[in-house]
Amino acid sequence: MPLVLNEEQNMLKDAAKDFCRNNMPITQLRKLRDENSEAGFDRETWSQMVELGWAGITIPEDFGGLGFGYTGMGVVMEECGRTLACSPLLATAALGAGCILHGGNDDQKNELLPRVAGGELLLALALEETPHHSPYGAATVAERSGDAYNVTGSKKFVLDGHIANKIIVVARSSGEAGDREGLTLVMVDSDADGVDITRTIMADSRNAANIEFSKVQGELLGEEGKGADVLDQVLDIGRILLSSEMLGGLQECFERTIEYLKVREQFGVPIGSFQALKHRAAQMFCEVELSKSVVLEALSALDESADDIAELSSLAKARLNDTYNLVSSEGVQMHGGIGMTDEYEIGFFMKRSRVCEHTLGSSAFHRDRYGVLQGY
Amino acid sequence: MSDMESFRNETRSWLEANCPASMRLPEKEEDMIGGGTKQVFTNPDAKVWLEHMADKGWTAPAWPKEYGGGGLSQEEHGILQDEMMRIGARAPINGMGFSMIGPTLLDYGSEEQKKAHLPKIASGKIRWCQGYSEPAAGSDLASLQTRCEDRGDFFQINGQKIWTSGAQYADWIFTLVRTDPKASKHDGISFVLIDMNQPGVTVKPIRLISGNSPFCETFFDSARCEKNNLVGQLNRGWTVGKRLLQHERSSISGLAGGGRRGRYEALGRLPEIAKQYVGEADGRIAAPALREAVLINQMNQRAFGLTQRRSMEESHSGGTPTFATSMFKYFGSELGKERLELQLEAMGTQSLGWDKQSFDDLESSLTRTWLRSKAGTIAGGSSEIQLNIIAKRVLGLPD
Asked: Which of A261, A293, A318 sits opposite B306 (nearest CB)?
């Protein structure tokens, strides 16, 4: 699997870099936060992203997308990560569209995917019920009623749950919380009867939601009781694309910190001349380089439907969690007092890193998973 | 069939026909062949294997044929490595001739020097060692004091080198010497090749913490060096010496093998060993803290291997690699050291035996390999030196 970008991917990356710098710099995130934006992202910028085709990068051309592949989406996510850009890309284009693409029937794909690619349909995946990522942890019940399913239960940390038009609920038609068997994906309208959404603003100024479902009627996505087959694939896509975003964020944070070490003077010299800081900076450099490699390999694996996607997704997410955590913590420390101020942007990376860390699996979760997949 | 496919098929059948069965068994450190006039072949198959491979040019597969190499492209070289791995074939020969001085002569040697030295390395006839460190010049290598004086038609060498690995088995030594004591320290150094088979060169092995003596002191007492054995220009040896260090660091980090061969492979798979010695619970290594540490090490190892591959793909596709050899040397040697510490932790007292009778082969060789591994983060520029280089050369941090 290639570990270098091809020419088209490089061009897309350059275009994404320009777009993010000009249209969604960190000042936009600050503005959204300070103005308590209703959506948590800028709708006009989202329309421009849709124009560029980003909402449908991974959606096949038959369903109105670009069919440009996961590496393509990865480089866009990476550039979005550099400017901490807020958008529905992860919740809608990665997770939501992934559920429809891998679980939906032909009618559902034909009807919904073009609307996702066109930017008019926003999606959310309602998975978690506890403070820790648990793919099979759903206790939420799905009961069959004629052709439809009724969903009852409580979900937490639903990314973009406050603005999605449709919510894909990971529910259970048999078994108990923790069982892989018996999961059923049910898609409901967010304005259906029995849906109660509470917006939760997170430390990184982005949005998730706690959602109560009481006998909410929705349609089946995939097969009853076999939801985990779809979910496993979609979660790995989400983890790898989120890792791409994290890769962008940590590189930006690292580069800003190195720059600061060169210009900040104490004791009459730049603080970057002190060996205590040099060695830590060099160690971070190694971690950053290793992070780039695992993300590229995981993206290629998705594009080639390789048989080690699950392993690589856990390899990538665990490493990116740890490296983003390290680089953003060191970023604040090496900036000293000014790193503690809200006015300075370096702290934004630290806040984003921790939310990413707990999205779709912590390092402990992914190391355990990697070990199990490898037979130890 | 593509050219590469037919190359793979030919290579496969050639190896099948020419690699003796005993050369496909796992190799212990004491079995490794270094070549040279002092090489003793305890297993005659090792000699046969070396001769077959040398005839083919595959002891140095990527070197040009005219210098005794195989003239293989990067892709062909990769195929040869894959096919050797497939049948578990041992490297027919190892050593500094292949990993350090050979590649350096290809970069900086004169035509005459390449013709004189490379074929003898490739055939395994001459073995080399490294004269770099001195008692007072370790991390501060450029402060070296071994003198090299112009005596008209030859150079005369006086001084002492230390940590000269394998000097007791070597025939020639590539050496950094001071040719201009008045110049600033980097500017008065030259890179010379010295025949060790002369009265002015004395070698004294040093017993190490592992109980073995892979390192030596090497003394020069009015030793003679022919003038045509000066590599590069007089007083410009630091440039040549630094290039050689890059080759050395690549070799220590396992980069030269294309990331194909895992470090310390002969010691088994770490996760399996952990399961064997501490037991398993629910398919997992039974000790959770050890399991977590093993996972971190193995996942870092995989990410490191991918990064080695990425670096090769980047240079192959014409791009400039964005990272230094120093990164691979630092990270690879630290990973290897950590892996051995984890194996000790997993095997407990069974990993700490000294006498060979009461412990099995793996156990007694582990003790010594563990001690030896401590050199990985010291030799070829310590980890701290590598971090200095990354900070300065890659990140551009000020002095």
From this structure: A293
